[in-house]
Specification:
about 200 residues, alpha+beta, 3-stranded antiparallel β-sheet, RES_dom, RES domain-containing protein
């Protein structure tokens, strides 16, 4: 399915990296890394959401267990991090991993909702999906903790340090430890029955 030019996407990233910087790190083992990271380094990757809420859900909340009590997000997770808006400048082709598209690739919601303990297996699936569709530019799926929002993992040649189809809207970047950033984070974490820990 297409990811049209002009689409606005959001990302939480460390301030020392550009918002459209690619991650080339191979992730053959756990713990560490995210759902669809490259196992072998055959592609570089970047994760984005369709809204600030999606970026928070996938970056700060994705590893949180489901519980009746408010979940605590360590403050270290927002240390030095920035919420940035990006715009797609060249249409891309996505492998859809939601709704009936999951059945079409022989999977169900386990692929996008499973715990981090399964990440080696989900990365193996990502490798197989790209092998079967080599012209695809990435994956699109529903956020683990928010069915109403979508997340994207975009992949490029591992030699690229910046995604060529993403333009950074620098005026809309918000440091998460700023006054505005903290208010934004706390408000959105509340949607996911979570809050920032008081100290660490």
């Amino acid at each position: 399915m297409p990811l049209p030019a002009g689409t606005e996407l959001w990302r939480i990233h460390h301030e020392i990296y550009a918002a459209n910087a690619m991650n080339p790190t191979p992730r053959p083992t756990i713990p560490g890394g995210a759902r669809f990271d490259s196992l072998t380094g055959d592609y570089a990757y970047i994760y984005l959401g369709d809204s600030p809420e999606a970026a928070v859900a996938e970056t700060l909340c994705r590893d949180l267990a489901v519980t009746a009590r408010p979940r605590l997000v360590p403050r270290a997770r927002i240390s030095g991090r920035v919420l940035s808006r990006l715009t797609v400048i060249t249409e891309m082709t996505m492998i859809a991993l939601h709704g009936p598209h999951l059945s079409a690739v022989g999977q169900d919601t386990w692929l996008t909702k499973s715990d981090p303990s399964d990440y080696v297996h989900t990365r193996t699936w990502a490798h197989a999906l790209f092998a079967a569709a080599p012209s695809a530019d990435g994956l699109v799926y529903r956020c683990r903790h928010n069915e109403d929002r979508f997340a994207w993992m975009l992949a490029t040649n591992p030699t690229l340090t910046i995604h060529p189809a993403l333009n950074v809207d620098s005026d809309d970047s918000v440091p998460l430890q700023s006054t505005i950033g903290l208010v934004l984070v706390e408000r959105m974490l509340a949607h996911y029955n979570a809050t920032l820990a008081s100290t660490v």
